[in-house]
Design brief:
Number of strands of chain A: 51
Largest sheet of chain B: 2 strands, antiparallel
Strand content of chain B: 5-15%
Strand order of the largest sheet of chain B: 1-5
Number of helices of chain B: 16
Mean pLDDT of chain A: 89
Structural class of chain A: mainly beta
Radius of gyration of chain B: 28 Å
Mean pLDDT of chain B: 90
Shape of chain B: globular
Distance between the termini of chain A: 49 Å
Strand content of chain A: over 45%
Helix content of chain B: 40-55%
Oligomer: heterodimer
Largest sheet of chain A: 22 strands, antiparallel, barrel
Number of strands of chain B: 10
Structural class of chain B: mainly alpha
Amino acid sequence: MVQRISFVSLALSLAVGVASAQQRPITGKVVGSATSAPVAGASVTVVGTPIGAVTNDQGEFTISAPAGPITLLIRSVGYRSRQVPVTADASSVTANLDQDVFNLEAVVVTGQVTGVAQRNLANAVTTLPAAEINRAPTQTLEGALQGKIPGALIQENSGAPGGGAQIIMRGVTTINAGVDPLVVLDGMIVANDAIPNGMNAITAAQAGGNPNNQDNKVNRIADLIPNDIESIEVLKGASAAAIYGGQAANGVIIITTKRGRAGKPRFNVTQRFGTSSVANSIGSRRFADSAEAVATFKAAAAPYCTKTSCPFFDNESVLFGEHPLNVETDASMTGGNDQTQYYVSGIVRKDGGIAPNTGYQKQSIRANLDQLLGSRFKLSVNLNSIHSLSNRGLSNNDNTGTSPYVVLPTTPSFFDARPVNGVYPVNPFTTSNPLQTFAELTNAEDVWRILGSSTLKVDAVTTPTQRVQLTLTGGLDFFSQRNDVLSPADLQFEPLDGEPGTVILGKGSDLRQNLVGSVVHTYTSPSNALSATSSAGFQYENRDLNVTSVVGRTIALGLQNVSQATSITSTQFEQPIKNLGLYAQEEVLAANQRLLLTAGARADRSSVNGDPDHYYIYPKAAASYRFVSSAGGGDELKVRAAWGQTGNLPLFGARFALDTNAVVGGQFGQFPSLQLGDPTIKPERNTEIEGGLDATFGNQFATFGLTLYQKTITDLLLVQSVAPSTGYQTRIFNGGEIRNRGIEAALAVSPVRAPDVNWILRSTFSLNRSKVLQLPVPNFNIVGIGFGTSLGAFRIAKDSSATQIVGTEGVVGDANPDFLMSLSSDLTYKRFSLGFLWDWKHGGDVINLTQLLYDLAGNSPDQVPAGNQRVTDWLGGHTKVYVQDGSYLKLREVSVGYDLPPDLPQHFGMRTARISFTGRNLLRFTPYKGLDPEVSNFDNQAIGRGVDVGPFPPSRSFFFSIDVGF
Amino acid sequence: MRAPTKLSPVTTGMIAGLAVATVIVAGACDFNIANPNNPASIGPNATAAQVDAAAQGVVAAFRIDLTSWILKSGIIGREDYRLDTADPRFTSELLTGPLDPSNAAFGGGQWQREYRSIAAGYTILNVIGSAQLTDPEKNAVRGFIQTMQALAFLIVLDAHTEDSIPIDVNRPVGGPLAPLVTNDSAYKALNVILDSAQTALQAAGSAFPNELGPGFAGFNTPATFLKFNRALAARVYAYRASLGALPAGTYSTTWSACPTCWDAALTALGQSFISATAPLDQGTYVTYSTGNQDLPNDLSQDVPSAIQLVHPSIKANAELQTGGTLLDQRFLNKVADRGTPPDTFSLACLASALSWIRYPTPNSSVPIIRNEELFLLRAEANWFGATGTKAQAISDLNFIRQTSGGLNPTAVTTASTDAAFVDDLLKQRLYSLMYEGGHRWIDLRRYGRLGQLPIDRPTGCASPTLPKDTVFSTLPVNSFEVQARQ
């Protein structure tokens, strides 16, 4: 101990001594070669030493360099890095940086802590910089990713405020295991749980034994603040994600938050005002006279119509007709010196909803601190506290006549649901008046979340050719979710169950503790022709999810506490999990940085496996080679290939065969569960091979990337229906094989190269086809998704697409899109900027049961004759009529901005000022007949997305923003 | 070329520290985490408390499907409608078909949940020998469990007339499945199970080691529980007797006549709790409650807004009470106008202004078998059985007509035809037992009279478009059972 400390002091004093004896100051300026504009924030380092500096706003830097000839390495995001030799007697230098139009030099994370430049990358990893993430404001992180990642299908589950969205990468990865990608935030795995709000106690959507919750849950990645993100990297398949091993089967989203920049404090404030409105409605049948009304709605309809006419009330538009004021304030501050840098940000957002009593609020504060401790230690501390409150109203399937799009089909348009003198009329045609329901029912989801991590990096060895870096990250992610649902006793439907008034109190919390350690050794040959990076480390994760819910029934009007209810049902669900991964990886960059060879492996154990002590090994290997144009100008062609494996953990509890329990007359009873566990259950295994090429041509006019992949999933966690006469419904076991094959392409073009113009057009294309190769069980319908074959079921069948939909008459559709495409543009001309993003999904069927409800009630806007014909066809055994094309083309984002001339803001003491108009989901084109083809009644599902039963309608939003910088 | 790397002691220390941390994390943490959400199943050497929890679990498992069965069998047997705007299948699938064998809530029901209750029983029976109980206590548990298993089997048979019934289901999961037997054999097996329970109960001492719960009040000793066991046996014998008397092919090609079953029913009734002095509601019940963690009775409904409505034929066919203008007292007890004035609720070409209030609150219990049914069973067995007399049959029938319905004595005489007797018997059974588990459907079926059920939509429905109504004689065998055997 004593010896070690003394060595540290010795080493430090030596370093200081050497520096003071031989240092010489060098000053310089870094400018862009095209514009001669200063490049602020560029990093300048003396090659072979840890000595470095950062340029100021004028692009200037000062550095204390050792004596003798040296080489400066200058890097800045958006520019190609450059090495500048400085002779022994020079004391000032000017460096011109060429623009790196397509960010080919950006370093992409390929290991837990290591990375390679985009231009060498052997995998198709998508990197999104902050500018692309934040083109138009969004409530949730997933919204900011839609249409931007080739190979990823990102869809919201409904239009309800506060999120609930699914990211599917490269097709079908599982049938029964986890479906969400692993989210890694600043090196730490964060929670993405979706905790039900308990609404099922009112909707009884799960009545009839449906095991899947239909509460329209929010998966908690929605909490993360897009504005705080510096970049997002998306590892789509197993070949790239293998280093995350047993949890990476659905891909990995690596999020890096913004960090402080040395220099004078910079303060930026953005104020936004906006509104949103419903983007689509279904409509309702118009009745001509009392005869027609009575024919459909029976005698109860008679008083509403005359012999010659019926009134028309658009109850749907009244319900979803709000145009709320949405306000958002973002502020961030960054600054520091060469020892300490900080980034602090805050956001306050308040969105009203398009329906009464709905809306979304979010507040967040983040502080990221980087501190150099001596010359070798660097401590980074990140703290983020987030609060979100969403009022989500009531939506999705129900069996009690409560959810608006289940009630509206049976509410005729001649019934005026609006209140008279504050009293809502009783809906004589069904069990509730949706206007009353939304006016009085509250469904609030209140989430507090804290994310904290600290990372200690040690440059243990730094020589011109060798570098050893140790990193230790400790992270904590904790959130507490509270759901408060109050359905007052005077709502029309409340007395129906004999227990008027329902109150639900849900409390869920998830604690995630991460400890990640790594050691990285880098060897760089003196000529820079060869470098080798070896890394090894561990990742330990402890999770504790604990959800309790109390449902109180029969509660008097005006009361709201569960202890005031007459009868109480309480549930608790706990999910403690421990995971440990050990990994090692070698990356060799050879042949003058043209050849990249990578190999690595990860070993994972988890408490959810049948054998919790067994390590499952996930290897990977990859290679790429760049052919560089001899003409210069940055044109090059890269060919690449990669292979790797990842796993998908069994769901918690799959290894047990336990009882379930109930109370009868105050007595505890227990009996076998519906599902038989398997004590030998093990993770699913994804094996992926991908190959492709990336080309940059026309002197950085365009880049084009093409990737082909094949991904096979073996040891699938299969839930087999067992003979029900055994008393069990299902058993879980490993078996079967699914294959995905796909193509991804990305094209980026910089069509105009002029000093005042910066224009990049990007387009992505992807398609995926899946096939069930082996199935050791009979073909089966996925349990709990859909409502039986006659209403469309997802059937897993050997040699068929894993996402096929079958109806009474056989295969009637496929939920898998034919292809996905997107087109985005970012143009700046002088002070103006214009950006947009189109997102196109072609094909992919949706089961439109909302329309079925309207048709059955005789109340579709096109009921006569189209709706009647649909019902007749359906009853005649044609499920196909309600399995409809879910294609869409959406204008996801539009942004128009103008930077005010500098003298104007400076007159008011500001550095910069900018005004912009942004819009989200402004336009959509779809052949789909329902509210929105982006829908999932059963929330995030591996296969059974796209079941439409009374979703919350979609909305479009606009913002006017003012950004000012100080 | 590559320079030898000399790690400084700092680095070595750090790497060693990292390695130590790895080892600590890898070794010290126990990854063997139990599932805190579910209890382990009963095993060998079970304590009395474990047996008690598992035995109550059999009741809990049985209870899950019971209200759904009552609703569904009532709809198919035209006792009621469920005019549910949110789920069209109550007015389409159950009345016009096709029945969906994959959906346990509809066509594929009355299978897995009943067998789950039976399997729960076997988890106890398989280890009861080693339980920490006396031998009489073990027999008491056996008698209770086997009787409850027979009850679950009976619901499966009530819903299915196909010859594809697994009976010998006490097998390890994953092994060969229980062979399918004919309906006839399955009914016979029920009597065997009930008789086996009888034997156990007779050797069971004076008390159960497990608490039977409030549904078995008055039947919670082996001796009194045996009376319930015999009542069930009588019902099974009566079903076998009437089914066996059907013309060949009406029901099942392999059905065998059981001329002695009527007498066996009379014998069993004699050993049951039938009593002219006890309330007609005396019997065994499945309880529901809004209490903590309990299950409310989801058949209870708010009268004015009810959507589970009475079939209009129930009112149309009700007789008047003696000397008055009032309808059958049983009708008045179980049916209420949906509103004042009567509020007709229509959906899918069906309409009714009457709610049924058989279960007025979520705490209402559902009868398993009660005194009133025993009299009707005795009337039936006395009419047809060799040891019974038609006069006794008419006496039992009138006892129910008068005591329960407030009606005049029956017009049936000892000289009447069998058909005339059955006409009135089934009518009394309808009004006595309506909304208690599909008795109208089961009774008409076992007398080959399903054709007498009213057809509400003989030409279908225009809006929504529905074909003509059908009367199903059986639910299809659950498709997962069929698939598992392919």
